[in-house]
Amino acid sequence: MPTMAKSIVVVSGGLGVPSTSRMLGDRLGQAARGALAERAIDADVAVVELRDYAADIANNMVTGYASPRLAEMITQVTSADAVVVVGPVFTASISGLVKSFLDVLDPKALEGMPVLLAATGGSARHSLVLDYAMRPVLAYLRAAVVPTGVFASTEDWGGDTGGGALADRVERAGRELALAVEGAAPAGRGTGAMESLPFEQLLANIRPSS
C-alpha cells in the first residue's frame, strides 16, 4: 500500500528577487528530499516567501488576528512534516520578518516539529546568529531542531554553485532533517504520552523505589 509523501516547507525570509536566502532554502529542501528518497520515502518540497506576507504579519502583530491568506500559510507550515527556516542576518541578528513570523505562531504550533535552521549574510562572522539568535527562539517553541545549521556568506556563492564547503554543509543538514522526519511520530506532535494524563494519574503512577 503506497504511503503519503512527506511534506517539507521552506520558510524564506529573503527580501530580494532572487534572494540568497531563497537559494539556500531551495538547496536545503532538495537535499532533505534526496536523503529521504535514499530511504524510499517520497517528499514534496514547498516554499513560502515571507516577503509576500509582510503586511499580513505586521497586521497580525498589531491586531492579534491573522488574515485568511496568512492563516492558510500558517496552516501549511505547521501541518508539514518538517520545516526549513532561512533568512538574512540584519544588525547582527535574525531578520525582523522571520522573527515576526515566528512571533505570530501559536507557541505550541511547532512543538516536536523537525526544523532545520539556516541564514545568509555578508560575512562568516555572522554565522553565530544560528546558535545565539535563531536556535533559542525555536527551542522556546519546542521544535526539534537538527544539530547542523547552515550559514552561507557572500564568499560561499562564489565559483560555480557555491563551493564544496557549503555543499557539504547542505548535504549534512539535509541528511539530518531526513533522519528526523523518518523518526518523527506521524501524529500527536506536541503532546507526549505522559503529558496527556491527568495530574492525579501521573501522581498515582509514581512508585517509591525499593
Automatic annotation (TrEMBL):
<keyword id="KW-0560">Oxidoreductase</keyword>
<dbReference type="InterPro" id="IPR051814">
    <property type="entry name" value="NAD(P)H-dep_FMN_reductase"/>
</dbReference>
<dbReference type="InterPro" id="IPR029039">
    <property type="entry name" value="Flavoprotein-like_sf"/>
</dbReference>
<keyword id="KW-0288">FMN</keyword>
<dbReference type="Pfam" id="PF03358">
    <property type="entry name" value="FMN_red"/>
</dbReference>
<dbReference type="InterPro" id="IPR023932">
    <property type="entry name" value="CE1759_FMN_reduct"/>
</dbReference>
<keyword id="KW-0285">Flavoprotein</keyword>
<feature type="domain" description="NADPH-dependent FMN reductase-like">
    <location>
        <begin position="8"/>
        <end position="157"/>
    </location>
</feature>
<protein>
    <submittedName>
        <fullName>FMN reductase</fullName>
    </submittedName>
</protein>
<dbReference type="InterPro" id="IPR005025">
    <property type="entry name" value="FMN_Rdtase-like_dom"/>
</dbReference>
